[in-house]
Amino acid sequence: MSLNLKVGAFVVTDAHYSHIRPQFLDFLKDIDSKKLNPTQLILLGDIFDALFGGVERTYLQNKDAVDILNNI
After folding, report:
1. Beta-bridge partners for 13
2. This prediction's pTM
């Protein structure tokens, strides 16, 4: 597999997003609203923080970020 990295791509590594640290969610919202316009969004490493408390709790705590990622 090869990746063609475009000029203007955003590469995010190890964001460790958590609902108590909303900066990554704010970043995604800026992309979703077109305030930021990357040519590509490449996510590597641990994008979400450690997932504890069962699948349902983890899903609910990260739903906003996952929904935006699915949209963009």
Report:
1. 44
2. 0.84
Residue 18's SS3 state is strand
CB 72 within 8 A of CB 31: yes
Cα–Cα dist 69/66, whole Å: 5
CB 48 within 8 A of CB 19: no
**Distance, CA of 21 to CA of 47 (rounded, Å):** 12
Q: Give the pLDDT confidence of 39-50 residue by residue, as tens digits.
A: 999 999 988 876
The dihedrals phi and psi of 44, each to the nearest 5 degrees, come to -130, 150
Asked if residues 25 and 17 have their Cβ atoms less than 8 Å apart, the reply is: yes
Residue type, 62: N
